[in-house]
Amino acid sequence: MTKKPTKAASSSADRAKGRADATQGIDDAAPASNRALRAQERRAAIVEAAMEEFIARGFAATRLDDIAKRAGVAKGTIYLHFKDKESMFEELVRIVIVPVVARLNALPPPTGTVRELVEAFAGNFLKEVIGTRRGDLVRLIVAEGPRFPSVADFYYREVVSRGIAGMRALIELGIARGEIREKDLARFPQILVAPAMIAVIWQSLFARHAPLDAQEMLRVHLDLIFGERRTT
Amino acid sequence: MTKKPTKAASSSADRAKGRADATQGIDDAAPASNRALRAQERRAAIVEAAMEEFIARGFAATRLDDIAKRAGVAKGTIYLHFKDKESMFEELVRIVIVPVVARLNALPPPTGTVRELVEAFAGNFLKEVIGTRRGDLVRLIVAEGPRFPSVADFYYREVVSRGIAGMRALIELGIARGEIREKDLARFPQILVAPAMIAVIWQSLFARHAPLDAQEMLRVHLDLIFGERRTT
Amino acid sequence: MTKKPTKAASSSADRAKGRADATQGIDDAAPASNRALRAQERRAAIVEAAMEEFIARGFAATRLDDIAKRAGVAKGTIYLHFKDKESMFEELVRIVIVPVVARLNALPPPTGTVRELVEAFAGNFLKEVIGTRRGDLVRLIVAEGPRFPSVADFYYREVVSRGIAGMRALIELGIARGEIREKDLARFPQILVAPAMIAVIWQSLFARHAPLDAQEMLRVHLDLIFGERRTT
Amino acid sequence: MTKKPTKAASSSADRAKGRADATQGIDDAAPASNRALRAQERRAAIVEAAMEEFIARGFAATRLDDIAKRAGVAKGTIYLHFKDKESMFEELVRIVIVPVVARLNALPPPTGTVRELVEAFAGNFLKEVIGTRRGDLVRLIVAEGPRFPSVADFYYREVVSRGIAGMRALIELGIARGEIREKDLARFPQILVAPAMIAVIWQSLFARHAPLDAQEMLRVHLDLIFGERRTT
DNA sequence: TATGAATGAGAGTTCATTCAT
DNA sequence: TATGAATGAACTCTCATTCAT
Question: Which ranges does the entry annotate as DNA-binding region (chains A, B, C, D) (predicted)?
């Protein structure tokens, strides 16, 4: 997790870093960094617990008491790391999303056909997002976005706009290579990812009633775009 | 005294008024139905107000005080119509959704090509859902669904499953008539509506950053499915 | 008590007044005004209780819980009458001081010598302020004034400046009549009341260690100003 | 290691520094006294900081965190010097008041007329108390006295009773020498200092609205007691 | 000796729900 | 039937105090 300390946590975090560097290689540095380490662990535990609770209950219905209990810390400890409930929520989303963005930026080497690229990407999405905590996060953002414009903004800026741009590039490549016939698709990359989004939402709302084979659905959707796959 | 009409806010209010007009002139009925009439109006006002507030703030953050104020009734009056906040929310969604279902059932006469049918449907959806209160309702259900399984269930049963079934029928018709080539599409009617759903969500979260021309997007999507439209 | 209702309390207070006027003389007005009456009583009880607690503990150390308990109401009821703890304190001082000012304005008929007037005034002060709740209020204002400028301002405007002006008028009359020799006294009416203030503070802090005969002290002070009294 | 010096904050700090310079060069004493020295300095800093904060906010509203920050020590360090917040406050007042008493005891040689003595005293009071931190301390004691009887007791015993006794002695001298005519004044020395006290309070509460020329007021008051001064 | 992260009791405030009118 | 004052449980946030380092 890339350090992005709260004001409250910054001093200890910074100092910890400094000290660790200074005592690099010296055994008895352990106790010094133990403190910082424990602080990091606590912070991580709070983030983890808060995420679970926010996803399970939404922002307003989540009790800080429950987050504390789940994280195994005292109520007051939360306030050593976050200013208040609101900014905790906002920061949380950032904290959880940043590594996602990082991974998106670590582009896979563009080899093979565009369809293969998109399939690889979709496969990854299936595994890592649909039906997972990460998927619930998406639903959380959809749910709370209007009340937390800064969260929606952040999510748009960091994830959506980049994702859209990436998709558009892929689509244009596909068009240039003749893999995609529908030229206007480049104007609406949302169409490419729409079924994936629907799958995310479907899983958390309706999976009970009618399980959805997301993988198959994506395949069909890609057939629509790239033309039917020959007999594999 | 119909205590719990399964009619939507507006329509029930309108009908109630109509009835009052109809019974005009019957002396001993007038005062009695006046009472009922007023009760109906109040109830409708509460439903309307509650919907606005729930959409704007979500379930937990909505105050009954605000609903009462907006509806122009006293706080206690709400409890004459609904058991408590939770069951009010659950009932509310039902009340608002029922007329939607009713309209869906009043199928438009299936004339013309399948594409024309779907386009008509999509056009209606564009006008009546995307960027409207009704669209926000969809987002509200996505947001609160996990905490209100009964709401999600109801929505699935009354709207989603029927909608899916209807789409499937259309798709099969399209396949039979040769308008749709991708045969597997019938297995995932979700693909047909996915961009529409995405448009709904996009409007309430990201319209500010990047307005989305939903109409055009739907057209492109239909081109994908039905093959490109010739020059008009 | 001149009605000066809080925003929260205003509606009920106003309506109560209106209704009371409307139903003047009609017996069954009782139940209607009972409500308003009870509300007034509650409000008065809160004011009374809050005053006691604030005097006993100061602003910061006073618990709303204790005020509620002492007033015999629920904690939430306080918020029907006052916006929050701070504005409750500020309003409280106003509420308690207003009748004091009213009484000051109801000037006693200026008969007899200036010394007699001043003695009458001092006698009243002795009876009504020194060693009473009212005296404690003065100490409370001294204590909290710097943290509640609005309170200090109000007290200065309504009580201190008027009191000073009144004293100055009396002193000038005394000088004109030849009862007071020290002409510069009119420039510092504070001197006239200083021992009275000291007596107020003394009673609440040191009475235990060394009781102070305030009456005698004031007499000696007046002798200083008016010259020794002959053997009456 | 003198644990609880009975010296005032500032003076002890200054003196401590002086001592450190004096013991410079004694090898094995240096580190030991360095420790004690640092401790003394810290303690003095805490006392100073605490005084400022208590005066500015009162006892209950003062945060130990702020005291620590202002003193440049960690929160925990305070507890190495004081048992808890309450006893810190009580001790503090003692620490700050002791040097005042000491100075009072170092009586100036009684030369000249009584009026001159009193004027010298009043002049000193004007300079050192009215409108200064020391004056605020008086207000603090008035404010917190009822909640800290031990503070009020201490202040009475060490300052008030001695001051009263001293004033009485002066007054009696004045009467004996014929400078003061009003014999009963000796029974109420409070009258002599009352305007000075009023000036202290006035400065911190009302100076903004109506500045008070304390020096002139005291002069007028002394004229009242000693008779008008001739044209110097 | 000094630190400051951690604690958790306790404070102010809100708001769903009740009930006398 | 309708009201809205009253309730008090429950929530967020603060801060004196402790203790491992």
Answer: 63-82
Residue with tokens 């008028």: C169
Q: Which residues of D25-51 are buried (b: 16+ CB within 10 A; e: fewer)?
A: eeeeeeeebeebbebbbbbbbbbbbbb
Q: What is the CATH number of domain D107-226?
A: 1.10.357
The CATH H-level (homologous superfamily) assignment of domain C7-89 is Homeodomain-like (1.10.10.60)
Hey, what are D143's tokens?
Answer: 């404010």
Q: Which CATH class is domain B9-91?
A: mainly alpha
Residue spans in chain B of domains classed CATH 1.10.10.60: 9-91
Whole-number distance in Å between D86 CA and F16 C1':
11
Does B27 contact A at CB distance below 8 Å?
no
What mean pLDDT is reported for chain D? 84
Taking contacts as CB-CB distances below 8 angstroms, the residues of chain C near D184 are: 216, 220, 223
Q: What is the pLDDT of residues A110-121, one digit of tens each?
A: 678 999 999 988
Task: Give the separation between CA B124 and CA C44, rounded to whole angstroms.
Answer: 61
pLDDT, position C33? 65
Query: Across residues C78-98, what is the average pLDDT?
Result: 94
Give contacts of B 119-148 with A, CB under 8 A: 139, 141-147
Q: Do chains B and C touch (3 or more CB pairs under 8 A)?
A: no
Whole-number Å distance between alpha carbons of C184 and C202: 27
How far is D105 from D108, CA to CA, in rounded Å? 9
Residue type, B14: D
pLDDT for D226 equals: 94
**What pLDDT was estimated at residue A195?**
96
Report the alpha-carbon distance of residue C232 to residue C115 in Å, rounded: 13
Asked if the model's pLDDT at residue C24 lies above 60, the reply is: no
- Partner-chain contact A143 B147, CB within 8 Å: no
Start and end residues for every CATH 1.10.10.60 domain found in chain A: 7-89
Tell me how far apart the alpha carbons of residues C199 and A5 are, in angstroms, rounded to a whole number.
57
- Structure confidence at residue A105 as a pLDDT band (50, 70, 90): confident
Mean pLDDT calculated for residue range C4-28: 40
Which fold, D9-84?
Answer: Arc Repressor Mutant, subunit A (1.10.10)
- Max avg pLDDT among C96-100, D98-102, D201-205: D201-205
